[in-house]
Specification:
Elements: H1 11-14, E1 19-25, E2 28-29, H2 32-43, E3 47-51, E4 65-67, H3 70-79, E5 101-105, H4 106-111, E6 118-122, E7 131-133, E8 150-155, E9 163-167, E10 171-175, H5 179-193
Length: 202
């Protein structure tokens, strides 16, 4: 039986949310993923609200679900007292990346055409969708002319598959590996992984 607190609510009952808040504009979800979430929660019978201003989430019950951009989710977690550090490429897994990874700036990437093709992702999550830069056309919409922000670069390679990992001590992170290097990483790191809750799928 779920444990009950002094108020009589079980821990299971505490986390059941009463509303889903989906980020959008003028009552319309802001992306395909947000729209999928909107339909899913609605079809399950939950109350769903599309919000424009993240400030409207302040004071929302802790159990409510929020669907939105990374910045919105981080702000919501901070309001709830949850630390959510940015991990990017963990040092422990860099040996399995199979390519060089380094930090640069968007200005440097745009000027150093000799380094193209180059995989580029912003350090500030979701500032733009990560991409392979092969020509100036790939930089359109990356806001590189207004702010020389930091990016993570890596050699462009043919990616066969992507995998996510969960570190139950420090949070959640992700990285892309080849199937071969993923198998090696799991075998070599299994002594660490098996000591934590969770499932590793290969």
């Amino acid at each position: 039986m779920p444990a009950r607190d002094g108020g009589g609510l079980s821990r299971l009952e505490e986390v059941i949310f009463i509303k889903a808040h989906v980020q959008g504009r003028n009552g319309v979800p802001g992306s395909v993923s947000a729209f999928d979430a909107y339909l899913g929660f609605r079809d399950m019978g939950f109350e769903v609200e599309v919000f424009d201003d993240p400030a409207s989430l302040q004071g929302a019950p802790r159990g409510d679900v929020v669907v939105g951009g990374v910045g919105v989710i981080r702000a919501r977690l901070r309001e709830l007292g949850v630390d959510c550090p940015s991990i990017n490429y963990p040092e422990e897994l860099k040996a399995y990346l199979g390519r060089r990874v380094w930090r640069s700036t968007i200005d440097q990437v745009s000027c150093d055409v000799e380094s193209w093709p180059l995989f580029v992702k912003p350090v500030e999550e979701k500032r733009f969708t990560s991409c392979v830069v092969e020509s100036t056309a790939d930089l359109v919409g990356k806001d590189y002319q207004s702010d020389n922000f930091e990016v993570i670069c890596s050699d462009a390679i043919d990616m066969l598959s992507g995998f996510a990992f969960v570190n139950h001590e420090t949070g959640i992170g992700d990285a892309d590996f080849s199937c071969e290097s993923t198998h090696s990483a799991i075998k070599e790191q299994f002594h660490y992984v098996k000591g934590h809750e969770g499932t590793v799928k290969v």
